[in-house]
Write a structure and sequence with these properties.
The protein is of the alpha+beta class. The protein has four helices and ten strands; from the N terminus they run βαβββββββαβααβ. A hairpin with a 2-residue loop joins strand 4 and strand 5 (62-66).
């Protein structure tokens, strides 16, 4: 059977609806020899951003290859696994399925991006912004004064920056 996690290897949700989390690729993958076995999240969508390095990704059995400055979105409930090259640099952004509601209209590109999955290169013009936003999100989670509103606003900026020009998967 395929395990279901809040975060890989963790069954407990860290918060109520509106949960958001970010970590570096290395933070969790080094604990598992740079391999995250197939699993699913039944209440969250994930955005994997590879800044430098390589990741082999499977989504519901379909393989994808990510290299420098690329990303993939894993919709809620999709079985996925990652195998990273040693020392791959990047981030894993995990957002509650409620986050999808930030797309105000049905035709908002962010809605399809998060519900159907997306794949692409990080636009060169957005690299610095994505790096800064991810670093700021990490700082928010490490601090005592992180607010869900600020976290969500910065996470939305990341998602919208990536959604521009991405390929929708389904």
């Amino acid at each position: 059977t395929i395990p279901t996690f809040a975060l890989y290897g963790e069954n407990a949700w860290h918060g109520p609806a509106g949960f958001g989390h970010i970590e570096t690729i290395a933070e969790r993958s080094v604990l598992h020899d740079w391999t995250i076995a197939p699993h699913r999240h039944d209440r969250a969508v994930q955005v994997l951003i590879v800044r430098n390095g390589h990741a082999d990704v499977t989504l519901d059995g379909t393989p994808y290859s990510l290299t420098d400055a690329s990303f993939i979105v894993v919709p809620v409930g999709v079985v996925h696994g990652f195998r990273f090259a040693l020392a791959t640099v990047g981030h894993v952004l995990t957002l509650s399925q409620d986050f999808i509601g930030r797309a105000a209209r049905d035709d908002d590109p962010m809605r399809a991006f998060l519900t159907e999955g997306g794949l692409g290169a990080v636009p060169f013009s957005a690299l610095g912004r994505i790096d800064w936003l991810c670093a700021e999100l990490l700082r928010l989670l490490q601090g005592e004064s992180a607010t869900a509103g600020l976290f969500d606003a910065l996470a939305e900026a990341v998602v919208r920056s990536l959604a521009t020009g991405s390929t929708i998967l389904r």
